[in-house]
Amino acid sequence: MTRTGTDDPEVFDNSERHRYEIESDGNVAGFVDYAFTSHNVTLIHTEIDEASGGKGLASRLIKAALDDIRRQHKAVRPTCSFAAAYIGRHPEYADLVAGATYPPR
């Protein structure tokens, strides 16, 4: 995940801070904290800046994080209620949940 320098919201992995961040108009508009283990990524907490709320940024953030986790062939533990609800609404990510059949067949 790299920054493209466009005004379109973009998600990137800020590994130093252990979180995926979504940037909009050159500013960090939100993040999801994570913890890695050798096989799993725990999504701990999602937060979107109040001024950026209502734009669907949290959903874009979680989708991008899940796509990145899939690319890494890891499972996810969604302890964050927003991430868990997102996966519940998007069954295409259910196979990523730790304990599910993984990798997908």
Keywords summarizing the entry:
Aminopeptidase; 23% helix; single chain; 5 strands; five-stranded mixed sheet; disordered N terminus; 105 residues; alpha+beta
Description:
It is globular, with a radius of gyration of 13 Å. With 105 residues, it is of the alpha+beta class. 23% of the residues lie in helices and 32% in strands. It has helices at 57-71, 81-89, and strands at 10-14, 19-24, 27-36, 40-48, 75-78.
SSE order and pairing:
Layout: E1 10-14, E2 19-24, E3 27-36, E4 40-48, H1 57-71, E5 75-78, H2 81-89
Parallel strand pairs: 4-5
Antiparallel strand pairs: 1-2, 2-3, 3-4
Derived structural class = alpha+beta
The gross shape turns out to be globular
H/E element order: EEEEHEH
Number of strands: 5
Give the low-confidence spans.
Answer: 2-6
Q: Number of domains in the coordinates? A: 1
Distance between the termini: 26 Å
Give the biggest beta sheet. Answer: 5 strands, mixed
Indicate the percent of residues in helices.
10-25%
Radius of gyration: 13 Å
